[in-house]
């Protein structure tokens, strides 16, 4: 399942994000979305988890305060 992360710093490190997300489960891919406002990028993290597992991860991450910003996480139910 894919998890959408928003609230990231403009210059966040993709490899650091991938590394941190592996603590929650296997990461298949990470895509950065800078369309729209490039100062507020999103990341789409594709994880080898079912819907229930991805929801648990998103709930655990959502609202974390990290480097002066709150991170928001949502499960993408459709590709």
How is this structure best described in words?
By secondary structure, the protein is of the alpha+beta class. It is built from 2 helices and 6 strands; from the N terminus they run βαββαβββ. The longest helix is centred in the last third of the chain and has 11 residues, at 51-61. It starts with a strand and ends with a strand. 15% of the residues are buried.
Task: Give the topology, please.
Layout: E1 2-6, H1 14-21, E2 27-33, E3 42-47, H2 51-61, E4 65-66, E5 69-70, E6 72-76
Antiparallel strand pairs: 1-3, 1-6, 2-3, 4-5
Name some characteristics of this structure.
4-stranded antiparallel β-sheet, alpha+beta
Task: Look at the helices and sheets and give the structural class.
Answer: alpha+beta
What's the overall average pLDDT, rounded? 93
The biggest sheet, with number of strands, parallel, antiparallel or mixed sense and barrel status, is: 4 strands, antiparallel
The rough form would be described as: globular
Strand portion, in percent?
25-35%
Helices and strands, in order, run as EHEEHEEE
**Count, helices:** 2
- Euclidean distance between termini CA atoms: 9 Å
Short description:
With 79 residues, this protein is an alpha+beta fold. The protein is 24% helix and 34% strand. It has helices at residues 14-21, 51-61; strands at residues 2-6, 27-33, 42-47, 65-66, 69-70, 72-76.
């Amino acid at each position: 399942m894919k998890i959408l992360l928003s609230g990231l710093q403009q210059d966040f490190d993709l490899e650091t994000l991938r590394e941190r997300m592996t603590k929650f489960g296997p990461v298949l891919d990470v895509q950065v979305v800078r369309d729209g406002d490039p100062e507020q990028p999103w990341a789409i993290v594709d994880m080898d988890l079912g819907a229930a597992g991805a929801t648990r991860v998103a709930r655990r991450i959502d609202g974390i305060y990290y480097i002066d910003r709150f991170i928001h996480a949502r499960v993408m139910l459709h590709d």
